[in-house]
Amino acid sequence: MIFLHDLYGGPAHIKEVPIYGSTLSVGAAVMRGVTSGTNQGGAIVASGALTDIIGVTAEPLPGVNGNTVFNQTPSVQATGVILRHKVIVNPFAVYRIEYSQATADTFTGTMTSSGATITCASLEDLTGGFIYDITSGILRAVVGGSGLTTLSSQTPNILSTDYVLKIYPNFRKLVDLNSLATMFGGTGGSQAAAGSGVLTILETYISANGIPLRKMTQTVDDGLSLLGKNPRFFADVVFTKHVLTHQS
Fold this sequence. Notes:
Strand content: 35-45%
Radius of gyration: 19 Å
Structural class: mainly beta
Order of helices and strands: EEEEEEEEEEEEEEEEHEEEHE
Helix content: under 10%
């Protein structure tokens, strides 16, 4: 996840914040810790409803692939050694986040299609968004919610054994982050039902071999065959339950 700009035009405001936990990545969302004796008074890696988001980590961290492993609790403060990390804390920051296509962050076993009709129990309403069949490489624009229809018929059909990625429509407010809080994924990505994390999606993007980064449009992108073209999907988001603006 990267900082793009502030809705009010200001630069990224960076604050050094104590972060409690065991794993932290650059570009990770962090939120206010609320557990007395464990993480209260600091930040933790964001999860769940994304309540009281403090910001996104802003510095390369030591370790493998930008990840650092540490174990910090308030007891560390007694030694005078407090680990702090640079965090972008703008309450109206716009961030660009990528959709994880890892197996753990996509779902399988519940969706099939026949022509323009999709069958999937408990699928959230994705009208205005897309479904990307990772296995076959076909991108489908969703135009019906409860009807589960796509803009046009596409083959091959989605099979129950395929891995599928949900790409949300603009202004969607319920998602989940992956376990590192750096990408879309987690429970909201690995199941048909909606996630629990609250934010707002402002715009959605695609890039792939032969497709420079651009905004997604249903009439243009429906039916794209992306197998072997290394497609990536992104969204611009605002965390609407920021610690500086959200009233608990």
